[in-house]
Amino acid sequence: MQQEGFASFLLRQARVLDPEHHRDETADILVSGGILKEITPHLNIRETGLSNIQEIDLKGKWVAPGFVDMHVHLREPGEEYKETIESGTRAAVAGGYVAVACMPNTHPVNDCAAVTRFILDRARERASCHVFPVAAITLGLQGNDLTQMGELREAGAVAVSDDGRPVMDSMTMRRAMEYSRTFNLLVISHAEDLSLAEKGVMNEGPTSTLLGLRGIPAAAEEVMIARDILLSQLTGAPVHIAHVSTEGSVSLIRNAKNLGIQVTAETAPQYFTLTDDALMEFNTVFKVNPPIRRLRDVEAIKRGLADGTLDAIATDHAPHSSLEKDTEFEYAANGVIGLESALPLALGLVREGILSPLETVAKLSRNPARILGIPLGSLETGKPAHLTVIDPEAAHVLDAETFQSKSRNCPFHGWKVQGQVLMTVVDGRIAFTRLNL
Ligand code: DOR
Prior knowledge:
Blueprint: E1 9-18, E2 23-32, E3 35-40, H1 45-48, E4 54-57, E5 62-65, E6 67-72, H2 85-94, E7 97-102, H3 113-126, E8 130-135, H4 149-155, E9 159-161, H5 170-182, E10 186-189, H6 194-197, E11 202-203, H7 206-211, E12 215-216, H8 218-235, E13 239-241, H9 247-258, E14 263-267, H10 269-273, H11 295-306, E15 312-313, H12 322-325, H13 342-351, H14 357-372, E16 387-397, E17 416-426, E18 429-433
Parallel strand pairs: 1-4, 1-5, 6-7, 7-8, 8-9, 9-10, 10-13, 11-12, 13-14, 14-15
Antiparallel strand pairs: 1-2, 2-3, 5-16, 16-17, 17-18
The structure holds (4S)-2,6-dioxohexahydropyrimidine-4-carboxylic acid.
């Protein structure tokens, strides 16, 4: 973490949204010397004994626990031209995040303690927020030999995943679940049956037929989710399903939860906002894996968010440069950036009546923190402040050219949206602000 001064201010009359403490009320928040001192309906400044503390009027604004993105690609080590730990976490705090979990498909792959330690050292020197490495399940993401999970845990990994690739062999996945459990490491499943998805570049359906592009059926995702749910039941190990995109996936996860199987799941804004019609102009900015699906999938994802089947909203922030994106559709890389557009898109769900403000905040902060087992995602007095200040109404146009990320592959560029991050406080320090302080 960078060394900057600790924040001291009094946030006046904000809507305080803290799902962990079932709090949704108007209150004053006092932060002094970086510590979250008090949350109270009305604070008499004289009683605090603090003189000269800056007061910030937040009527109509929200204060939430700092957001946690459980699924990002920071590209360092190895692809620093797309993103670095420094630039990716600058994008994170601009998006309201106080912590990100970074996937292991770097170069070299994060499949040994040295790479995990490198990421954490680099984060300590240059990151604007907390970085929690997700290590690989198998060496080189090759799907064969398991990594040394005890060493990875000790080095600081919080979970394991071969994200970007599935673990195709079921016995290997079974062993991964049994082994990771010993070290309290969560398995995150990139659910994709490669034999069904083979060479597909978009969702399989009428649009892929029309465009003459090879499709990836929903079943490619669902088959693997079904398998991993069964393996979780068999081994007793929890499993987390990454980037859920289909109606059938939501229904499999819902049923598994009803049976008491320890499955959690995330989706991302692209899956509750876009449909595959977006590809009609062959614009590679919409190429992502899993692919954006049909309207009925989008609707099912929204229902899954509303009824709690989908616990978390992650971004799957996947930066790519124009080298990988400005090419024929077949050859373009999969991935969209998401850290700096997630909040207004998530707030769209509030405006549609799908989630309450408190539920939205839970999916952006408390739930991912709990799933990863990290001590964030709630407003705790007496501890260093981790919080995000939001203007839920601010109308603006998403402009990827102004983003902190090094990459520009944002499918929402030019969209008129509502809702903006005003300030992000990480460990008691102001890591990002749009306020005149
Ligand atoms: O679209 C994607 N991009 N999906 C993945 O699973 C990996 C990611 C990447 O690393 O670019």
